[in-house]
Design a protein that fits this description.
Blueprint lengths: L5 E2 L3 H14 L6 E10 L2 E3 L5 H4 L4 E3 L1 H5 L11 E3 L1 H7 L10 H12 L3 E13 L18 H6 L4 H26 L4 H18 L30 H8 L5 H41 L1
Parallel strand pairs: 2-6
Antiparallel strand pairs: 1-6, 2-3, 2-5, 4-6
Helix pairs in contact: 5-7, 7-8
């Protein structure tokens, strides 16, 4: 659990009751999955929670029923897991990446037989500035990112952007390997169709960098057999069909394009501000 967040005091009790209720019905579940809410500067909001997708009723879900309703998922602190089940599947988080709870949740739910939906908001996701989930540029990167930090000449902005792309790429490799390890049945087919398009599209971000200190671009070929799950853009098609030897040239063109795009956007914002100032000055002069 993030140090900024907390469970409601009745959280564990409600989960245990849910496990017991399912057991009484002869339908043992491996996971009880509850809801969350955001607390931002003292204001409570429920935008983005799972009730909008899975409804507000208590119910038991199979992995297939769960997977066919969403394209992205995360799970770590939003439920209670049968420890014997968790130990039997030997599931662990992928170390030293962002968004590790996404893969953990998918791999957990896909290996469960039943998941109990408890649509009670028992987790408070507290949003505030300078929290663990909103680090400032003043904060130093952790030890495992120090070598990457140095390769970007201690530019924290580049480091953060690369770290996000690196994390998404490594998570994509892991989730592809996981799906391949499952029986290739209907639930697995549905899960691939639901989740792989999002993951594969995110994996292209690693090509936004001419400087790729971990040389992850060279591992992109591992994802090529799965590109039928997406409708690639023109640039993505270039990446897919580009020989590895030409990746440095491709990323140079990509970097130039991104620089030009960002410059154009900044110029447009600047020009709009100039026009607004001129309009205000004109209104003031007319008033006088």
């Amino acid at each position: 659990m993030d140090s900024d967040d907390y469970w409601e005091k009745e959280c564990v009790e409600e989960c245990i009751k849910a496990f017991a209720k399912c057991e009484e019905q002869g339908k043992n579940v491996e996971v009880v999955w509850f809801e969350f809410y955001f607390l931002t500067n003292g204001k409570i909001t429920t935008d983005g929670n799972w009730i909008q997708i899975y409804g507000a009723e208590e119910r038991i879900l199979t992995p297939q029923e769960w997977a066919q309703k969403t394209y992205y998922f995360w799970f770590s602190t939003l439920g209670l897991i049968d420890f014997k089940f968790l130990k039997s599947i030997k599931l662990k988080f992928l170390n030293e990446v962002l968004y590790e709870d996404a893969n953990f949740g998918i791999m957990l739910f896909m290996q469960a037989q039943r998941i109990f939906r408890l649509p009670k908001m028992l987790y408070c996701y507290r949003i505030r500035e300078q929290s663990t989930m909103r680090p400032t540029t003043i904060q130093m990167p952790p030890a495992y990112l120090q070598s990457i930090y140095l390769s970007f000449n201690k530019n924290i902005t580049y480091l953060n952007t690369y770290n996000r792309a690196r994390s998404l790429f490594l998570l994509t490799l892991q989730i592809v390997d996981f799906f391949n390890s499952l029986p290739q049945n209907e639930p697995t087919k549905i899960a691939k169709q639901s989740f792989l398009p999002y993951y594969l599209k995110q994996s292209f971000y690693i090509f936004d960098f001419y400087n790729d200190p971990l040389e992850l671009q060279k591992q992109f070929y591992k994802l090529l057999p799965y590109m039928d799950y997406i409708k690639p853009s023109f640039y993505q098609k270039l990446v897919i069909h580009c020989p590895i030897s030409l990746y440095p040239l491709l990323t140079k063109f990509r970097a130039a394009y991104l620089w030009q795009r960002d410059f154009e956007r900044k110029f447009r914002r600047w020009w709009k501000s100039i026009l607004k100032c001129k309009k205000r000055l004109k209104s003031y002069s007319n008033f006088e």
